[in-house]
């Protein structure tokens, strides 16, 4: 109830105004939203690409963080959405960002602010690589993103 | 106060609240600064942290109790400064501004149209709202009644009554409304022909009403005529678009079937394109394997003759170009490179052949020369041996003469050895007693070897 109320308020506000490069792709219910984000500057890694973020909200949102990950839509579909290359984004779309962990989360964050954080995380990146151990993680990981204990050891990117 | 005291005081302060202020429908827009960052509602019972960030009491409470690393580590959700204490005193104007925001009555769904400031909504619901749902006075009835419908006699308003006209069963509280407005047996007038009909028959009447205005049946083909139903029959007999109607229908059907065919063909085309793409990818794959094999073979056979193998970079170049050019030119290029490869190989083989025959010839010459040398040496040795043997033969003959002399046989000495050299052997044979055993063997060899 708390989550639904807050989310409908956020949605109302986002439909009025959104920062450039961020748009709502799907918001049919109050459990799962999809957002499209774009990197706006000249970064050659992400130029002319749109990426799709999936937000999954628990009933305790915003006290608990939402589950946020990139999802891939195949290049043959009408709206192709790849997974961006980044040293903190695994190729299955899981994002290693302390903001999204229960320790780094703060209830004042909104869907909009999370999108902007991820946008700036992409903008600042210059490394054309996946996290170390990406293929192992992708093939063996069956946990949900919030159950994974990431080590936030790299503050550079 | 510190955080523990704050958490302890929370439960008892919420008891008198009936209205959930967060789920109210806010009518007037409110400033973002009046909004709690956690629940996004105007502050409800605002409290303040040491960093001057304000939150609703309830929101802050939930945030502290669910904070991951423990309540004493709690940091301000907005600025992450350590929250050492919670202050209940916030500026009065903040509370007033939040309470002044207009909201709809929570019983809007029941029919209350009231819009009041948020600060008054509690008293409105408590005292004035006639639509508030109350428990039925009848202890055995579990239904709820609007406050205004409660009868003075405190009797249950949920008994069913049968409508005298339409036989429908209606609750007592809704009976008045049903009889006056909703009952299907009530009469009503048609908006077109002003005939009076029953409410339940109104829909059928409108469909058939001769006065109702209808558009021509050919309106979908562009006929703009709209006349009363009675006149429509006359119009439709003369309407040119209606006579064209069947032709339009046929054309529409054709268009539909063609669109269907096009879609079908598009699908097939997609399938073919997919197949083509997969064939192309397998070609690229196989050519890669072949070029790898080509790179291996010359490296084994020709490594001595041609250490740098030109075929490998060429094949790579063809691999790159194959992505852009079509399959045929790619195949031709591949064929060309293979042909060149074969030419190079045959050239290398003739080269090797020439080298081998040259080497064999050199070797033969050398061997011939050696053999000539050996022959010469052998003949010279033979001559020496002959030269060495000659005096022995003479000696042997002379001793033989000497024994025959001893036996008084003088003819042999003059007859056999009169022509051969006799001077030196006369001096070499003074000791017949010493040479006697060797003479036997020498004389044995004489007959066989020389």
From TrEMBL, chain A:
Q: Which UniProt keywords apply?
A: Ubl conjugation pathway
Is Transferase tagged as a keyword? no
Residues in UBC core domain copies: 2-157
Q: Name one Pfam family in it.
A: UQ_con
Question: Does the keyword section mention Isomerase?
Answer: no
Q: Which SMART domains match?
A: UBCc (SM00212)
Question: PROSITE patterns from the entry?
Answer: UBC_2
Q: Which domain of life is it from?
A: Eukaryota
**What name does UniProt use for this protein?**
Ubiquitin-conjugating enzyme/RWD-like protein
Q: Which organism is it from?
A: Aspergillus bertholletiae
Automatic annotation (TrEMBL), chain B:
Gene3D superfamilies from the UniProt entry = Zinc/RING finger domain, C3HC4 (zinc finger)
Question: Ranges of Basic and acidic residues compositional bias?
Answer: 439-450
UniProt domain TRAF-type: residue ranges: 178-232
Q: Which PROSITE patterns match?
A: ZF_RING_1 (PS00518), ZF_RING_2 (PS50089), ZF_TRAF (PS50145)
Q: Where is this region: Disordered?
A: 292-324, 393-450
Q: Where is the composition biased (Polar residues)?
A: 300-324, 411-425
Signal sequence extent: none
Q: What is an example of a GO molecular function annotated in this UniProt entry?
A: zinc ion binding
Q: Where are the zinc fingers (TRAF-type)?
A: 178-232
UniProt feature coiled coil, ranges: none
Looking at the keywords, is Zinc-finger present? Answer: yes
Pfam families listed in its UniProt record: zf-RING_UBOX, zf-TRAF
Chain ranges of the RING-type domain = 36-80
Q: Is the Zinc-finger keyword given for this protein?
A: yes
Sorted keywords for this record are: Metal-binding, Zinc, Zinc-finger
Q: Which InterPro entries match?
A: Znf-RING_euk, Znf_RING, Znf_RING/FYVE/PHD, Znf_RING_CS, Znf_TRAF
The name on file for this protein is Uncharacterized protein
| Species classification | Eukaryota, Fungi, Dikarya, Ascomycota, Pezizomycotina
């Amino acid at each position: 109830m708390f989550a639904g109320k807050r989310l409908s308020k956020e949605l109302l506000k986002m439909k009025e105004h959104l920062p450039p490069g961020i748009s709502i792709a799907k918001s049919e219910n109050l459990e799962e939203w999809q957002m499209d984000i774009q990197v706006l500057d000249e970064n050659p890694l992400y130029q002319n690409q749109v990426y799709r973020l999936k937000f999954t909200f628990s009933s305790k949102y915003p006290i608990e963080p939402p589950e946020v990950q990139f999802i891939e839509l195949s290049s043959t579909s009408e709206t192709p959405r790849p997974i961006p290359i980044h040293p903190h984004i695994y190729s299955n779309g899981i994002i290693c960002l302390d903001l999204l962990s229960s320790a780094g989360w703060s209830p004042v964050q909104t869907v909009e602010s999370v999108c902007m954080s991820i946008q700036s995380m992409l903008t600042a990146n210059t490394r054309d690589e996946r996290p170390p151990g990406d293929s192992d993680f992708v093939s063996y990981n069956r946990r949900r993103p919030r159950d994974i204990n990431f080590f936030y050891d790299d503050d550079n990117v | 106060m510190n955080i523990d005291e704050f958490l302890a005081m929370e439960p008892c302060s919420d008891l008198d609240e009936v209205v959930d202020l967060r789920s109210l429908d806010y009518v007037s827009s409110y400033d973002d600064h009046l909004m709690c960052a956690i629940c996004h509602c105007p502050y409800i019972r605002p409290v303040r942290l040491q960093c001057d960030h304000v939150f609703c009491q309830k929101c802050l409470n939930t945030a502290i109790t669910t904070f991951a690393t423990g309540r004493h580590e709690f940091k301000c959700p907005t600025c992450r400064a350590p929250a050492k204490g919670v202050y209940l005193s916030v500026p009065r104007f903040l509370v007033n501004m939040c309470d002044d925001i207009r909201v709809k009555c929570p019983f809007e769904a029941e029919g209350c149209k009231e819009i009041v400031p948020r600060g008054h909504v509690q008293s409105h619901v408590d005292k004035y709202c006639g639509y508030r749902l109350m428990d039925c006075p009848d202890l055995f009835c579990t239904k709820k009644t609007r406050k205004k419908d409660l009868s003075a006699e405190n009797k249950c308003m949920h008994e069913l009554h049968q409508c005298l006209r339409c036989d429908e069963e209606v609750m007592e509280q809704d009976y008045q409304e049903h009889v006056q407005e909703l009952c299907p047996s009530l009469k009503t007038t048609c908006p077109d022909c002003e005939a009076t009909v029953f409410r339940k028959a109104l829909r059928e009447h409108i469909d058939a009403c001769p006065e109702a205005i209808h558009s021509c049946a050919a309106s979908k083909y562009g006929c703009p005529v709209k006349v009363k139903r009675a006149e429509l029959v006359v119009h439709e007999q003369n309407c040119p678009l209606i006579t064209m109607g069947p032709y339009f229908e046929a054309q529409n059907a054709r268009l539909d079937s063609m669109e269907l065919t096009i879609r079908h063909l598009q699908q097939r085309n997609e399938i073919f394109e997919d197949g083509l793409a997969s064939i192309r990818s397998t070609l690229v794959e196989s050519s890669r394997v072949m070029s790898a094999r080509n790179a291996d073979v010359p490296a084994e056979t020709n490594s001595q003759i041609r250490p740098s193998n030109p075929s490998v970079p060429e094949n790579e170049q063809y691999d790159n170009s194959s992505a852009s050019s079509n399959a045929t030119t790619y195949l031709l290029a591949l064929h060309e490179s293979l042909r060149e490869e074969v030419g190079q190989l045959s050239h290398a083989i003739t080269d090797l052949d020439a080298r081998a025959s040259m080497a064999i010839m050199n070797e033969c010459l050398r061997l011939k020369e050696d053999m000539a040398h050996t022959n010469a040496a052998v003949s010279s040795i033979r001559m020496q041996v002959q030269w060495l043997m000659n005096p022995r033969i003479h000696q042997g003959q002379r001793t033989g003469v000497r024994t025959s002399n001893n036996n008084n046989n003088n003819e042999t000495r003059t007859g056999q050895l009169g022509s051969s050299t006799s001077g030196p052997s006369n001096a070499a044979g003074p000791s017949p007693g010493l040479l006697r055993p060797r003479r036997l063997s020498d004389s044995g060899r004489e007959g066989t070897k020389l």
